[in-house]
């Protein structure tokens, strides 16, 4: 089969044309001008916002890029809706989620209030059908609504580990293709983690090995680190897990592309500081420019004014600095950069609070000084915006160096990572095409002993990096993030359930708010693939 070799720029251009550009816009610059012009409150802000976007140092989440200045104006990616136990409440939530999906957002739900299957419901002798049957209805509804004709909605369904239907819930995505529009996660508390039901853990781990689901969330960790405990307990997150939110809260995200802060082999902390400040102003403005899909969402969001500033292009940055992902140096760089983003973002939020006032619910929060936003930081997956910026996604290690990517549902492109390609050129290595061919067919260059060892270490890909190193990296970021970190712990193809159980405990002890796994090659419908290892 012949595949078309595509550059990052071509992929970004295709994606922009298919989903982001408005009629009359010809490319990335037009989009940046529209978005900055809409979000900026004065000329100075408009110019600053345009500059950080045009230089690809910062991008807000997709709904802001798609909808700002378009007349639609729903700008947030993340929502959580409460789910009651009555038919009226369940279908009210379904209606609200449809409205959110139409506007471009993703929804998270904890379905634990729904009574178990087989329990009394309706007329005497009537039997309840349980949370999993209702999740199927939410899934079908999501499949019908295409957001502005551009992409399908995303959901996460959560169930508490002590709900009587937990086993059918954990197995609900066992067959590939079921609940296509849902991620699922089990909400575990500390008492379960201290004395777990081994049977349940085995089933969770078995399903993770099979196809990467369910994820696991740690309720007590989330709530211990909740910045506004006065507003109640958090029991749900948005679809990719980076935003623990109260019922009806929404959050808008933005990501700094760390790769763009390296110049001549040095990381430019001075530029990063400045960009963090600009990005916080941008995201805080989004809250006021936003058109909320529901009154309850507007009220809940304006009470806490949460924003989620994070990073993308982290692995690209490490490669440019010559630091392998699985190394103490990478953990040190991650901690240094993220703690700076946290402190600068809080500093800026404080300055904005002096001018415009603190978030209204600050009385119920842990903040001891006025800040404009209850949270300022989160690490999003950046699935689409990293493609637009042409960098590695979020804080993930590279999936591959030469791989096939299914793009916009139908096309398949062959991609060679540009930093890898450049390194092969600059190293004057012979047989560039032979090395690329090995990187594709084996999924890695580790076996090429003719290549220098430090070169092979620098270009290790996600499934060659041990699960402990994945979790260590997530934990370092989590230490400096108010909300949470979206990260997939990649497991090598031959991992077993014991590895998963060990990893769950390791992550919980490290203070993570949740974990998501993927065992390499476990899904046939994977978006990115390398060869079959032959
Ligand atoms: P992007 O790169 O498009 O800005 P991310 O991959 O960073 O988005 O995802 C951030 C959040 O956006 C997710 O956690 C989820 O809440 C929401 N989201 C992602 N994809 C979709 C989708 N197809 N439909 C609705 N919401 C989505």
Molecular structure report:
Among the domains are: 4-59 and 251-387, Alpha-Beta Barrel (Anaerobic Ribonucleotide-triphosphate Reductase Large Chain), CATH 3.20.70; 78-237, no CATH class. It has helices at residues 8-20, 28-39, 43-54, 62-67, 87-103, 130-144, 166-170, 190-194, 198-211, 219-224, 269-289, 295-304, 314-321, 328-356, 385-389, 418-426, 432-442, 453-458, 467-479, 497-509, and strands at residues 4-5, 58-60, 78-80, 106-110, 146-147, 151-152, 155-160, 182-188, 215-218, 236-237, 244-245, 250-257, 262-263, 266-267, 307-312, 402-407, 411-416, 488-491, 514-519, 528-529. Strands 2, 3, 4, 7, 8, 9, 12, 15, 18 and 19 form a 10-stranded mixed β-sheet that branches. Strands 1-17-16-20 form a 4-stranded mixed β-sheet. Helix 11 crosses helix 14. Helix content is 43%, strand content 15%. The longest helix has 29 residues, at 328-356. Adenosine-5'-diphosphate (ADP) binds next to strand 6.
List the helices and strands and how they pair.
Layout: E1 4-5, H1 8-20, H2 28-39, H3 43-54, E2 58-60, H4 62-67, E3 78-80, H5 87-103, E4 106-110, H6 130-144, E5 146-147, E6 151-152, E7 155-160, H7 166-170, E8 182-188, H8 190-194, H9 198-211, E9 215-218, H10 219-224, E10 236-237, E11 244-245, E12 250-257, E13 262-263, E14 266-267, H11 269-289, H12 295-304, E15 307-312, H13 314-321, H14 328-356, H15 385-389, E16 402-407, E17 411-416, H16 418-426, H17 432-442, H18 453-458, H19 467-479, E18 488-491, H20 497-509, E19 514-519, E20 528-529
Parallel strand pairs: 1-17, 3-4, 4-7, 7-8, 8-9, 12-15, 18-19
Antiparallel strand pairs: 2-12, 3-12, 5-6, 9-19, 10-11, 13-14, 16-17, 16-20
Residues 61-62, 77-78, 105-106, 151-154, 238-240, 242, 253, 380-385 line the site of adenosine-5'-diphosphate.
